[in-house]
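sorry for the late reply, my laptop died twice this morning and i had to redo everyting from scratch. anyway the thing you sent over, i finally got around to it. pasting the sequence first so we're on the same page, its 176 residues, then the predicted structure underneath. double check i copied it right bc i was rushing
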Amino acid sequence: MEIFSFRKMVMMMIMSMMMMMLGNMAKCELHYVGGNKISWAPNVNLTEWSTHEHFHLDDWLYFGYDRHLYSVLEVNKTNYESCRDTEFIKNITRGGGRDVFQLTEAKTYYFLSGGGFCWHGMKVAIHVTENSAPATAPAPSKGVSPSDAAGIQFNQGLLVLIFVLMWGISSNNISY
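ok and here's the structure:
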C-alpha cells in the first residue's frame, strides 16, 4: 500500500509540473521575424513587419536565414542605429540558419546581421510589453500557417506523452 501511495504522489507531482509548463507555453507566441520562415534577409522591410506585431514577455522570435551568409546579433540601440556589429550583447546565431530567441524582459530589443548586411536592411527593433491578459491557447503570429500551429500543439502533446512514458518506465523499476 505504501508503494501505491508513493507512486500516486509522484504522478500527481509530475502532472502538476506538466500542467504548469503547458500553461506557460500557452501564454507565449512564436513570431517568425519578417513574417515567414525564411525572411531574415536583405531587402525585407523588417521595420514595417515589426510595427504590425505585438510582442509580449516570454514570446519567442524565430530567425530563418541562409546560414552561410547571415547572422543574428543582439546589440544596443547605438550599435543598431549605426549598424555596428562589434561589441554585441549576444550572438543568437547557432549555425543552422533557424535560431530562436525568447523575449524575457519588457524593453526594446535590437537585432542586426553582421558582415555589413545591416546596411541592406537586416536589422529590427522589437518593443516588448508586459502581458496584457493571459492567453487561453497558443497564439501563433500572422505568419504561421495552420500546419505550423498544429505542430506547436503536437509538440505539447508529445511532451505529455514523454512524461507518461517516463513514469511508466520508472514505475516498473520499483521492486516490491
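The chain has four helices and eight strands.
thats about all i looked at so far, will dig more tmrw
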